[in-house]
Amino acid sequence: MGSKNSIGRITRLRQRACSLLVLMASILTVASPVQAEDQSARNILKAMADYLASQNVISATFDSDIEVITPALQKIQFTNSGEVTIRRPDRLFAKRAGGYSHVEMMFDGTTATILGRHNNTYAQIKAPGSIDELIHHLRDEFGVSTPGADLLLAGVYDELVADATEIRHIGHGVIDGRECNHLAFRGGEVDWQLWVEIGANPIPRKYVITSKTVAGSPQYTIRIKSLTTASPASSDAFTFKVPQGANSVDVKSLADIDEVPAGIVAGAAQ
User: Fold this and answer.
1) Cβ–Cβ contacts within 10 Å for residue 147, how many?
2) Does 190 map to a domain?
3) How far is the C-alpha of 204 from the C-alpha of 122, rounded, in Å?
4) Which domain, by its residues, includes 157?
């Protein structure tokens, strides 16, 4: 009898041990692909960041879409087009035109100028330093947001992963006929996605930012139409020339330079 009980206990212990091993194996099987996806995404992002940071000159054209949620909970999208040229470390020219504003920005290494061509006003900011320092300065000191500008920063990798709680390589996608790696990032208040062209020139082709804390989860999307690195830009592009009749204002007084028109969106609840 005792012998049978001993054999039974041994059998149950073996069964439990086997069950534990199966459970551990299943956990490892589930965890490994997630870790692999995270590392794959980081490798793709790092390759893109290193490629962009190694370029002395970058010229790009883009289309952008920004969504707003009206008081009636209707999602409205506003579309703009633009271009940007940088010459590292401290020259930048950018312009964006939409249905409500036409804005240009020039930076010559010491002074940044924001020009509203639609209302012929401009503001200047003393900001000696690099392009990276300028973008941070405009955002932190003056509240001038430049969505998507982090793609131009020399430290783009650190900027994109700084607030990420999860990074995944979703798979592949095609943007304007170009096959891309599709990356997805999660953060506390926003999620973002990035499509990076596959090949020798890992160019960002599409960038989507989703605001999770706003009802309706509006998105900001940038699609890179073209990006070149071969031709050095002329210094004239970064030098501001005052347009005839333009009025100088304080940067905080610049009006109607946003991609979204001021006031209540047409069709919204009054």
Assistant:
1) 14
2) no
3) 31
4) 45-166+227-253
pTM: 0.81
How far apart, in whole angstroms, are the C-alpha atoms of residue 141 and residue 254? 15
User: What is the distance in angstroms between the CA of the first residue and the CA of the last residue of the chain?
Assistant: 86
Structure-block tokens of residue 134: 């300028």
As a whole number of angstroms, the distance between CA 128 and CA 150 comes to 19
Task: Tell me whether residue 5 is in a domain.
Answer: no
Quote the longest CA-to-CA distance of the chain: 107
Classified as helix, coil or strand, 168 is: strand
Residue 76 lies in a domain: yes
Strands 121-126 and 166-175, by their bridges, are unpaired
Contact 206, 194 (CB under 8 A): yes
Tokens of 175: 């943007």
Angle at 30 between CA 27 and CA 31, to 5 degrees: 85
pLDDT tens string 103-150: 999 999 999 999 999 889 999 999 999 999 998 888 888 777 666 677
pLDDT, tens digit (0-9, with 9 covering 90-100), for 209-267: 999 999 899 999 999 999 998 766 567 889 999 999 999 998 877 767 777 777 655 54
Taken in order 164, 166, 171, 173, the sign of the CA dihedral is negative
| CB-neighbour burial class of residue 218 (10 A; exposed 0-12, middle 13-18, buried 19+) | middle
- In this structure, are strands 219-228 and 204-211 parallel, antiparallel, or unpaired? antiparallel
